[in-house]
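Narrative progress, year one. The postdoctoral researcher (J.K.) led the effort to move from monomer predictions toward full complexes, under supervision of the PI. The following entry was the first complex the group processed end to end, covering 1086 residues in total.
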Amino acid sequence: MISPLRPAPPLLLLLPAMALVPVLVALPFLVHGGGWDLIAQFLLAALHPSLDPLVLGSALSGLGVTVAIALLGWALSLALGLGAGLLSSRTLWATAWGLRWPAELIRRLLALPRSIHELLWGLLLLQLLGLQPAVAVLAIALPFGALVARVVADQLDALPGARLEALRAAGAPAGPALLTALGPALLPGVISYGGYRLECALRSATLLGVFGLGGLGTDLRLTLQSLQFNELWSGLWLLLATMLVLEGLVRLLRRRWCLPNRFGAGASGVGRRGREIAFLILLLLPLLLLQARAIGVDPMVLLHWNPLPNWGTSLRPAEVLALPWASLVGQTLGLTLLAAALAVGLAPLLLLLVAPWPWGRVLLQLVWALGRLWPPPLTALLLLFALKPGLVTAALALGFHNLGILGRLLLEAAEAAPEGAEQALAVAGTGPRLALLHGRYSALARSYLAYGAYRSDVILRETVVVGLVGAAGLGTALLEALSSFAWDQLLALMAVYALLTLVGEDLSDRARRRLLRCP
Amino acid sequence: MRIRQPRALACASLSLVFTAAAATTVCGGLISRAQAQVKAVNPTPATNRVLRIGAIPDQKPEKLNRLYGLLSNELSRQLGFKVRYVPVTDYAAAVTAFRTGDLDLVWFGGLTGVQARLQKPGARVLAQRDIDVQFHSVFIANARSGLKPVLNVKGLSQLKGKRFTFGSESSTSGRLMPQVFLAKAGVKLTDFSGGAPGFSGSHDATIALVQSGAYDAGAVNEQVWKSSLHDRKVDRSKVIAIWRTPGYPDYHWIAQGDLDTRFGKGTTDRITAALVSLRRTNPSQAPILELFGAQQFVPAKADQYATIEKVGREIGKIR
Amino acid sequence: MNLSPVLELTGIQVPGRQQPRLCDVSLRLEAGERVALLGASGAGKSTLLAVANGLLVPEFGRVLWEGQPRSRSRRLSRRQQARIGTLWQDLRLIEELSVQQNLNAARLAVWGWPRALLNLLVPVETAACAAALERVELEPALLGQPVTALSGGQRQRVALARLLRQEPLLLLADEPLASLDPRLATELLELLLRQAEAPRALLLSLHRPDLLAGFDRVIGLRQGRLLFDGPVADLQADTLAQLYAEGP
C-alpha cells in the first residue's frame, strides 16, 4: 500500500534539487558583480586558446606528467587493491585457513587510508618524502587501493558459495578452487570498477597538480591566478580531449569485456576475454615502466624518510583544543550536504529541462565534461570573480564538479533504460519533459539516488580541496595548519576528518541499501 | 559482427598505446621541465654538480621562470658549475623542499625563511635586496567598498566586517606583517565578514580579487603592487591603496649549510659575492635586478629576522 | 458532428531493407468500427499500427486522423496524440508507480505540470480512476497498489483501463493477446470490443483467426500489401491460407 503524501520515485529524484531554492534566494546577496568582465574574458578565451608553441609545449609536458601520475597511481592501486581485497575477504580466509576474524580486522584497518582524501595523502607524503614525483603516485595509489580492496572483498563475499563448495568437495586445493570458482565471476565487476577508477585517477592527478604536486594542474592554477585565460584554455582543451578519449576507451573495453556475449559463445569466444586482458596487461607493463622513468619516479625514495621537523616542540594540546571544532565540523557538513544536494538534484532537473531539444543534451554533455575536468579549487577561484567568498561559493564549486560526474552517469543510465514506458507516454500526447519524468526517471530513481548517497560520501572527503575559498570548514583549517607546520593540529584535523568520513560512509551505505531494497 | 570484433580490439589497443605512447614521448621529449618541476636529485656526485635554486611562488609563473632562468645562467657563469631553477608552486612546499634537501639555494620570504632555518639547522642567510631592509606592505581596497585611505594604523579598524583576503598563508608581506598591523588596530581575524579572511594564494591573485570585488580589501607586497601599477595591470578606478605599512625586513637568500663540502671550500661565500656583485650598470645583469625590483643585493644576517621570528611565533606560524 | 473517418490511410509506403515493409496500403476506419488486422509474422502489422499511431512517418502516402493531417511537419499535435490510444503488447506500465498513478499518466497530455507533480505526491482524481477500473472489471481497492504487486491478468486490465482513461477516439492494439492463456485472451478481447463503440474505432492486430467473432471487419496483410479488406463473414478459408502461406 502506498500511503498518501509519499513522493513517488520520479519526484524523489528531483527532491534534492530543492536545495536550489535557498541558493537562489541567497545568490543576489552573494553576487558582487565586480568581475563579470573577467568571467566574460574567461569564457571568450575558450574560443581563442593560446597556440604559442611554448605554451602548448609546456601544457603538453604537464599533461604528460599528469597522465603518467594517473596511470602509475592507478596501476599501483589496482595491484594493492586486489591483494588487500583478497586478504580482507571472509570467503578466502574461511576457505584457505578456516578463520574469519583476520578478514574483519584487515577490513577495518583499510578504512583508514580510504577515509583520507588523496590530496591530504599527497601533502602529508610531501612532508615525509620530499618533493618527489613518487609522492603524487603514492597519494593516488594508497586511498584508491583501499577503495578497490573494499569493492573486491565485497564482491568476492557476495558471490554464491555453492560452486566453491562443489570444487572443494571434489578435492580441489584452496587456491585453484578459489580462482576457478570465483575468478571469472569477479572479473566483470573488477574491470568495470577499475575503469571507473582510472577516470578518477586522471581527475585526482590533475587536482594534485593544482596543489603543486606536478603536472598540468600546476599550470592551470598558475595561469588562472595570473589571469592568463588564453593559456589556461590551451591546457583545458588538451585535458578535455585526453579525458574524453580515456572515458571512451574505458567504455569500449567495459562493453567488450563485461557485457554477456550477444553472439553466443562460439569457439573463438571462450577464453577470448582472458587472452585480451593478458595481452593488454603485457602491453601496459613496459609502458608503465617507461613512464615511471620519464617522470623520474624512484622507488628508492621510500627508504629515505625525513622526520617531521620540530615534532616535539610543536605539540601544544591546548591550542588544538582551542580550535573552533563545532563550527569547523558544522561548516564541513553543511558544505557537504549543500554540494551533494546540488549535484544530485541538478543533473535530473537539467536533463528534464533540455528534454525537448536534442542539441540541449549535447550542450549539457559538454558542460558536464568541463565540470568533471575542472578541479573544484579552480572553479572556486573563478567563482570568486563574481561571487563573494563563503560556504555557498565553495558548495557551488564542489557541486559543479560532482554534477559533471553524476550527470554523465544519469545520462548513461537513462540511455540504457528501456524506452517503452516513455515512448508509450509520448505517443499518447504527453510532452517530452513529462514523458521523461514519468516514463524513464521512475525506473532510474532508486539506483541513481543510491549512487548519489555514495557520491555524498565522496563529496565529504572532497571538501578539503575547496579550503582555499575560506570559511570552508576543516579544509581551510587544514591548509592553515599545514603552512604553520603545526603537526599536532594537522593530525587532529585529519583524525576528525577521517572520523567524519567513516561515519558518513556508514550512513551513506545504509541509505544506499535502503534505496536499493525494493519498496 | 563477429568479424569486426578483432578489428575493434585492435583499434582499442592501438589507440590506448598511442595515447600512452604520446604521453610518454611528451614526457621524454620535454622531460627537462617536468623533471625540473618535480624530480628530486639524489646526492649529487662531485663530477656532475648542479646547484638547485628555488623561490617561493609569490608572483606570476612566467615572470618567475624568466627571472630565475636569467639568474641561473648568471650564477652558473660566475661560479663555474651548473645552476638549475626548480619551480615550486606553494610556499609551504618550498620550505619542505629545502628541509628535505631538494633545493640548495632558495629565495625565501621573511617568514618562510625563518621556518626553513628552524627546520634545517645549519642553513645560512646569504643576502637580501636593498629594498628588503625596510620592506612594506600595502593595504588595498575595492573602490566601491566605501573604504577610505587612512593615515595611521588605527585607521585599519574600518576593515572590521569587510571581506578581506591575504595572499598565501605563509607570505610575510601578504599575511604575517599585515596581520600584525591589523592586530595593532584591534582587528581580529574573526572580525572579517564570514568570520575568517580569505587566502588568495599570491599577490597577483589578491589584486585581481580585490579589483573584481570578490573581496572588499586585501594586503599585498608593495613591490608587486608598484610593478602592477607600472605595467597598467591595475584599474585605478576600481582598486585603491589605503595604507602603506611601516618597514620590516623581508625576502632573503638562504643556502644549505653543507654547500662548502659538496661544491668545494668557500662556495657559500662565492655565491654571496656573486649575488652582491650584480649591478644595474652591467647589461647582462641589469634585467635580473630589474625583475627583482632592486638596485642591488646586499649581504644579510640571520639576526635581522629576529623580529619576524618573534611575531611569527606570536601568531602561531612559527612553533 | 464530425463525419470524417477516424483514420484514413492513402497509398502508404514504408521502405524496408530488402522489400518494402508497407506497399501502397490504403484503408478507412469509421466511427464504431471494430477491425482485426491479420497476417503472418513480418507481414507489416506492427508497421501499419506504428503508422496509425503516428510513431512512424511513411515515406509516401497520406495519413488523416479525423480528417486532419499532421499539424506539424514530423509530429502530431498533442491534441491529436491524445485522441489516439495504444495498447502495447508489453503493456509499458511504469513499474515504480501505483495503479492510480499509472492510470493518471494517461492524462499527462492534457494536464499541466502542477497536476503532473501532484500525481506523484498524493492520490489525484480518484473517482475517475475508480470508474476506469470498474470498466475493466477490477476492484477500485487496487488503486493504491504498486503495479508490481498485480497478477498478469490484472496488469493487462490496468493497461486497458489506462487506455480508457486517456479517452481516445482511435484504439490501437498490437497483438495484445499474444502472450496470454486462452481464458485471459478471450476475456481481454471481450472487454476491448465492448469499449469500441461509436464514436470510437478499434484496430487490433491478431495472429489467431479463431478469435474474429466480435469484429466487424478484417484486414489481411501479406508482405506489406493489402490482400483482403472486408466483413468477417466474407473471409474465405483459401484467403486465410494465402495470408499465412510461405514463400513469395
